[in-house]
Structure prediction request, 347 residues.
Amino acid sequence: MRALVYHGPGGKSWDEVPDPVIQDDTDAVVRVDAVTICGTDLHILKGDVPAVTDGRILGHEAVGTVTEVGAGVKNVRPGDRVLVSCITACGRCRYCREGSYGQCLGGGGWILGHRIDGTQAEYVRVPFADNSTHPVPAGVADEQVLMLADILPTGYEVGVLNGSVRPGDTVVIVGAGPIGLSAVLGARLHSPSHILAIDVAAGRLDAAKQFGADIVVNSRDDDPVARVMELTGGLGADVAIEAVGVPETFELCTRLVRPGGHVANVGVHGKPVTLHLEDLWIKNVTITTGLVDTYTTPTLLRLVASRQIDSARFVTHRFGLDQVLDAYDAFSRAGETGALKVVLRRA
Ligand SMILES: [Zn+2]
Ligand SMILES: [Zn+2]
Prediction:
């Protein structure tokens, strides 16, 4: 088969590789029908994730058709359409028993396109298939479901639910990329008074408005702290969601939040951040961090199937699977191309 193979920092190619086979009796092999590229894949290609080594097939998000299952797989059968989640779960360890699948100790967690070969390929082996795939409801398109492999549960669990968004809240989302926009969609499920999105890219702020932010602030031209204080009578936001992953945006969130509020960090940080406890110690602020667990994926699937969430609106660019290098190019130059999510489909 063909697959997108990582060849060390800066290196990738669409290579001929051996087809995946069942290795454990809890594995499934899935034919990839639709796949996407994540910001994390770009981090890997820069060399920021050293656990990913030369020869690894990238990708951790897919929708496909099961072609083969091990003897121990009970929930899925060949021919089933499934969502392949970014998180794999052994289902037996302490964390899996608590629903914290992202922290799985039994060989799961985020492993696809990281510690084992991933989904940017014609076929993928999915370990612990019973716990790591979700059946696709009839009548729902591949690309709608594909957004549930990573970004929607990440924005919802790590942003909205960790941030404890409640009805009437003022929610500020810093960063209007795919994850920030997922947090906008997720926050709307909890009826906040205001969703204020902050970014430096006008195109992304337009997207935030379309996704349901009622106020957008370009922090190049405007002071977001002044805007939030004006909106909240000088108190600050009930919830500030960090969806960028640089020190400046995290520190901004700690200045935007009201006393007693929540800062939910979603961004992937590569550098140390200053935690201003000299200001925060007196403010009763809750700060959360997290890797997605995907425990909300079944709920989000129902909301997509019932048209309460329009997940296909993330998709700005479409390619064939064999155009994966063009897709990477469009996605990595999002500032120029306006890409939010790219979808690659098998021919
Ligand atoms: Zn991802
Ligand atoms: Zn586990």
Remarks:
- Residues 151-161 form the longest helix (11 residues).
- The first strand starts at residue 2 and ends at 6.
- The chain has 13 helices and 15 strands.
- Residues 89-90, 92-93, 95-96, 104-106, 108 surround zinc ion (ligand 2) (CB under 6 Å).
